[in-house]
Design a protein that fits this description.
Layout lengths: L8 H8 L7 E6 L7 E7 L2 E7 L9 H13 L17 E3 L2 E7 L11 H17 L13 H11 L10 H15 L6 E4 L8 E4 L2 E5 L6 E4 H12 L9 H14 L4 H27 L13 H12 L10
Antiparallel strand pairs: 1-2, 2-3, 3-5, 4-5, 6-9, 7-8
Helix pairs in contact: 3-6, 3-7, 4-5, 4-8, 5-8, 6-7, 6-8, 8-9
Length: 320
């Protein structure tokens, strides 16, 4: 369960009293998520999400995340809107943690990915990229090449505990990707973690995108590559080219994909797979006994990485 910090009733009431939201009606921990403590808070004014930012989130990044959500919401993009207290401040402290309240979004994230989900997420991602074009703040991607090197160094000696020969394969892959990583592709604000549990639907329509706490400034096409990994593989590990075609086609109907972005997709998808393989590997090897959150299998992303390594061009993703 993704609640790392308990919030006593008296502390919660004092926190909410700083807002014009009336009295607390209920507060329940939310099981989804692995980075922060999240609660569904109901007050006399309605429903909200209360987030306490835990140790893995750098407090210096929080103004970027809060500001980005405010910017996107003001542009009409469906995402949580930070709630400002009576003093005009959205980012506060609760139980010794940075904390914020955001609006509650209706909808459900899809447990079983269908083709229309991929079309919807492609359109939503392009809308996010367009809405964020004039966001003034910048945040480097902490989980790009340098971050991957640091993660690998932290896992190298124990990677064999997950699979024999894994360290050697990752070392070779990291070297190859680093040597070929592109420069100068169109860039701006990206989500960088747009997995199915971060996109809400009602029927076939996207009703909101959540969890901007990996958002950063990077290549737009890298965000697309992350989505190919997250949305277009079946449970048996096979790649679904129909889903990929719908995702990419729906994206470029809103924001055109340049030829150099399309050509870079196979390498960017390898990089995206390596990024999630390494973070999952680190969590797997450093999982504290008795923790509520179960680490995700890193080998799922090894299989995806090997698929992208075999791709010779963007045609494998359904587009010429």
């Amino acid at each position: 369960m993704a609640v790392y910090t308990d919030v006593p009733d008296d502390d919660l009431r004092a926190f909410v009293a700083e807002y014009d939201l009336g009295e607390v009606v209920s507060c329940k921990g939310i099981a989804e998520g692995v980075e922060n403590s999240n609660f569904l808070l109901r007050t006399e004014a309605g429903s909200f999400i209360l987030t306490l930012y835990e140790k893995r989130v750098d407090p210096k990044d929080l103004p970027f995340f809060i500001g980005l959500m405010e910017h996107l919401a003001a542009k009409g993009f469906a995402c949580p809107t930070p709630i400002r207290a009576r003093d005009g401040i959205a980012l506060r402290r609760l139980c010794g943690r940075p904390a914020a309240l955001v609006t509650f979004l209706d909808g459900m994230w899809p447990r079983r990915i269908r083709a229309f989900h991929c079309a919807g997420v492609g359109k939503a991602l392009a809308a996010l990229h367009r809405a964020g074009r004039d966001f003034a703040m910048r945040r480097p991607n902490a989980l790009s090449l340098a971050g991957w090197q640091a993660l690998f160094a932290a896992c190298r000696e124990r990677a064999h505990e997950v699979r024999a020969g894994l360290a050697e394969e990752l070392e070779a892959e990291l070297a190859a990707i680093t040597a070929a990583w592109p420069a100068g592709l169109p860039s701006g604000v990206i989500h960088a973690d747009l997995f199915p549990d971060n996109v809400f639907f009602r029927g076939e329509e996207v009703t909101g995108v959540i969890d901007f706490y990996f958002a950063c400034t990077d290549f737009f096409a890298y965000d697309l590559a992350i989505c190919l990994n997250a949305w277009c593989f079946e449970t048996d590990g096979s790649f679904n080219v129909t889903k990929a075609r719908l995702l990419l086609s729906s994206y470029r109907a809103v924001r055109p994909i340049a030829a150099e972005e399309l050509a870079a997709l196979p390498l960017l998808a390898r990089g995206g797979a390596l990024r999630f393989l390494l973070t999952r590997l680190y969590d797997w090897l450093n999982h504290p006994p008795g923790a509520f959150v179960r680490p995700k299998d890193p080998l799922e992303y090894l299989q995806k990485l090997r698929f992208h390594r075999s791709v010779t061009g963007p045609g494998a993703y359904g587009l010429a």
